[in-house]
Amino acid sequence: MTQTADTEAITSLVRDYINAARTADEALMRTVFHPDSTICGYVGPDLFSAPIEEFHEWNRGNGPAPDVREEIASIDVAETAASVRIELENWTGHRFTDFFNLLKIDGKWWVMNKIFHMHE
Questions:
Q1: If phi over 0 gives left and psi between -120 and 50 gives alpha, with beta otherwise, what is residue 73?
Q2: Domain residue spans in the chain?
Q3: Which DSSP state fits 16?
Q4: How confident is the model at residue 1 (pLDDT cuts 50, 70, 90)?
């Protein structure tokens, strides 16, 4: 893949993430995150650090976020590794900044780690 093709594939993956958030489509969300991925950030004063399965559980309980709006602030690609910054507004009333670390495995991009900031 070229740098442009990788950026397009990563953008498509982020769009799947957003569409999964809007619809609470767990099967689609699982195509974004590698099964071994992790999540870390603060929810208020409490550190949330866990395997991605706990994010899937949160998503399941949180339900659809049909009004979420996103901006892909940056994508940085270095052949098989990448990072993405996403600004999210109104994920069921919350505002987040997400940082994704991605890895290309057998030609497919996967989010391996999500670090987030939940804005007040």
A1: alpha
A2: 3-119
A3: H
A4: low
Q: E-strand spans in the chain?
A: 33-43, 46-51, 69-78, 81-91, 94-105, 108-119
In Å, what is the CA distance from 114 to each residue of 11, 22, 51, 96? 16, 18, 10, 12
58-103 pLDDT per residue, tens: 889 989 999 999 999 999 999 999 999 999 999 999 999 999 999 9
Beta-sheet pairing, 33-43 with 108-119: parallel
Alpha carbons 89 and 87: distance in angstroms, whole number: 7
pTM for the model = 0.93
Q: Can you read off the two tokens belonging to residue 52?
A: 């991605």
Give the fold, CATH level 3, of 3-119.
Answer: Nuclear Transport Factor 2; Chain: A, (3.10.450)
Are 98 and 74 in contact, with CB atoms under 8 Å apart?
A: no
